[in-house]
Amino acid sequence: MEVGTQYDFIIYEDEFFAGAYEVIEQNVQVFNGPSRGSIRLITDPHRGDWRKRSFFQTVSGGLIARRDPSTDQNVTSAKLAQDDAKEPKCSRRIGPVENTLSSFKKIDEDPRVMSFILGQQTGPEMWQNHVNTAIMAVEAALEGVVALSEDDSAGTITTNGLIDALAKMGDQAARIVAWVMHSKVFYDLVKEQKALNVTDISSVNIMEGMPITMNRPVIVTDSSSLYTSGTTTQYSTLGLVADGVVIRESEAREIVTETITGKENLNLRIQGEYAITVGVKGFDFTGSANPNDAALASSGNWSQVAADVKSCAGVRLLTS
Prior knowledge:
Layout (H helix, E strand, L loop, with lengths): L38 E5 L6 E7 L25 E19 H6 L6 H31 L5 E3 L7 H9 L8 E6 L1 H13 L5 H7 L10 E3 L6 E2 L5 E8 L3 E16 L6 E14 L2 E3 L7 H4 L5 E3 L9 E6 L1
Parallel strand pairs: 1-9, 4-13, 5-6
Antiparallel strand pairs: 2-3, 3-10, 5-8, 7-8, 8-13, 9-10, 11-12
């Protein structure tokens, strides 16, 4: 176990000791309003390792058929059936972080400042984990449905590519309320539209650095789940419906601080835990409880339970 000592601090003169900390270098402002509710974060505590929901399936073959008034023959009855979808709870740990009390005294700081510092660092990192978990899950789920994927991986993104992706939803394309894309893809789209030499309102958008995206906002975030490295890096752009992916804070956060004795120096240790549950619209998670990132990112662990692809989380556009 690693324990920080006074030598893990840099002791500045008082006037320079401003307490600057590293911050998360990724856009994590994606939940609820900014994504038009396509990526949601809510508080919803529940017991156990799963959140399960049942729903009535669409009647197979449809309910409406031609009727022949000239006969009284028997007809085959249809049935109303239910299915269920499981959403996995993902347990998370904060720390532990441990430092000697002496190390704080050497920089003339109250040891209690450790809680404040860790709180400042934990908040953004927790938020980033929420974002990446959501994108990881919905990208993997959509990857497994060929009918919802537009493969333009031979080239960079184009406006026509966005339209083709929307077309995967057919007459329900209006359900797509937001795009989620990597910054590389975003700027490729700006350059593509600039090269078209468009005019009027479109040119105003491009002059302001915003591409035309079919009247849908773009969430630009450099999540590692939006690209796969290889001979040619491929990028996923997601078009999501309302409630496409939902992150539920499903267990209350617990933070424990304790003073450790029995060592050469008194130590202060801080550790915490919480849990989130992730659900993707139209999909059931078939993997094990408390999945790790690799399991969440595996399309084989997500099974479509919505009868129609138009009732799923959205569409996926592949580009290079």
